[in-house]
Amino acid sequence: NAGVTQTPKFQVLKTGQSMTLQCAQDMNHNSMYWYRQDPGMGLRLIYYSASEGTTDKGEVPNGYNVSRLNKREFSLRLESAAPSQTSVYFCASRRQGPGTEAFFGQGTRLTVV
Amino acid sequence: AQKITQTQPGMFVQEKEAVTLDCTYDTSDPSYGLFWYKQPSSGEMIFLIYQGSYDQQNATEGRYSLNFQKARKSANLVISASQLGDSAMYFCAMREGNFGGAQKLVFGQGTRLTINP
What we know:
By secondary structure, chain A is mainly beta. Chain A has strands spanning 4-7, 10-13, 19-25, 31-38, 42-49, 56-57, 65-67, 75-78, 87-94, 103-104, 108-112. In chain A, strands 2, 4, 5, 6, 9, 10 and 11 form a 7-stranded mixed beta sheet that branches. The mean pLDDT of chain A is 94. By secondary structure, chain B is mostly beta strands. Chain B is built from no helices and 12 strands. In chain B, strands 2, 5, 6, 10, 11 and 12 form a 6-stranded mixed beta sheet that branches. In chain B, a hairpin with a 7-residue loop joins strand 10 (88-96) and strand 11. The model of chain B has no long low-confidence stretch (mean pLDDT 93). At the A-B interface, strand 4, strand 5, strand 9 and strand 10 of A face strand 6 and strand 11 of B.
């Protein structure tokens, strides 16, 4: 029972490079989320998606793009990485409904030098 | 504007004592939900407890209970009989939005709880 799987677990990028963080869930959830966690800042919502083909901006969307090509997968792309994007990135999914909790991936630790 | 506020950056509690972690929220949506998560030093996010805005009773899950005061917009987590394994970051989160559409889930800044033996 995999749950939410994020790849890669660790990544070092040079300033200006691009990369895509992958996230897949096998729980048939409609909603998916991308967060970043900086030390002492809690989790900040980057983008979220209610269903395949739909995405919405969260609290800190600048510098990121997302893609929800199907129900299982929700990817996060950094087009031109900056040191300010050094963070731990979490993907989460949840079923639509009032009391349904979010399930999280193990996180991707990204360093931009 | 901050939607979820956790005013205690850190708390230190003696083992076996009860502890209350504060959370206040801000929303104009009549239908919302409040969650608490635990993040140990290993980094994973562990769901603890949920309270819906229309729930009449405070939620409880084992040693965890939620002190929900709707008029004051607060949803404090109470951990009874704390254990060394309770040492972790604790996050309060709020779900807003229509059930048929996109539902935002936003988090507070967290409280680092340390249980002393």
